[in-house]
Specification:
CATH topology of the largest domain: Rossmann fold
Number of domains: 2
Structural class: alpha/beta
CATH class of the largest domain: Alpha Beta
CATH superfamily of the largest domain: Alpha/Beta hydrolase fold, catalytic domain
Number of helices: 5
Largest sheet: 6 strands, mixed
Helix content: 25-40%
Number of strands: 6
Strand content: 15-25%
Distance between the termini: 53 Å
Length: 236
């Protein structure tokens, strides 16, 4: 019996493979694009000659008589992620298919890469420490311009996001309150970062700045073993 069980699991997995493939093909093929914003001005007052926003769309836009898109759904990712994360089996195959909540045959799904993430402009492209300091406000403004200037969206059916994308969702609510029918922030609360979350982020920043080899360098020094990294006083 002990030898049969692994075989049964393998057979079950093999039988499920076609279903997985069918789930992934149940929604329209994603399309990637880029939008360049010349002389983009950040909240800090700094500017970038050209800010590139990469994005992915699923489905087709439906337009009103004026030619404006009216079936858009904006979905924003979390820290270190990208719009491509929402094309996973766990998300897209359960939401983007026929009759599902975000049916891509009905809605025009827009999955942008936030500033500093994915294929959008980010410090590691070359500017590093000379890259403008950016905030959630900058991410929201850039995405708003993507929708209105590039994708011709007049009004969104839904603006939603997870974690960092959830924080952006809250901000959409007070920056552009009439732009969407609904907001859905997930894994996010409308409060300042505090407690362990803020402590760990601050520790990561301080570890870099405390490293004598860094010295505010525009390009990072060669990585050192973790055992040689300086420790914050709170942990020493």
């Amino acid at each position: 019996m002990a030898t049969i069980r692994p075989l049964l699991f393998l057979l079950w997995g093999w039988l499920l493979l076609p279903a997985v493939g069918q789930a992934q093909s149940r929604y329209p093929t994603p399309v990637e694009g880029d939008f360049s914003l010349p002389q983009f001005r950040f909240e800090s007052g700094e500017t970038l000659p050209a800010l590139n926003l990469h994005y992915t769309t699923v489905g087709q836009p439906r337009k009103d008589k004026a030619g404006k898109v009216v079936n858009a759904v904006l979905i924003m990712h979390g820290t270190t992620g990208s719009g491509q994360a929402f094309l996973s089996e766990l998300f897209a195959s359960r939401l983007f298919g026929p009759g599902q909540l975000l049916d891509a045959a009905k809605y025009y799904l827009i999955l942008p890469d936030a500033i500093g993430h994915g294929k959008s402009s980010k410090p590691s492209n070359g500017l590093r420490m000379q890259f403008p300091k950016y905030t959630y406000d900058d991410m929201v403004v850039a995405n708003y311009r993507l929708l209105t200037e590039k994708l011709n969206v007049a009004h969104a059916r839904l603006v939603m996001g997870t974690s960092m994308g959830g924080m952006e969702t809250w901000m959409w609510g007070y920056k552009y309150p009439d732009f969407m029918d609904a907001l859905m922030p997930l894994a996010s609360l409308p409060v300042e970062i505090a407690g362990r979350n803020r402590m760990l982020r601050k520790m990561a920043i301080d570890l870099i700045k405390m490293d004598p080899a860094w010295q505010g360098a525009p390009t990072p020094p060669s990585p050192r073993p973790a055992s040689q990294a300086p420790s914050p006083r709170c942990c020493s």
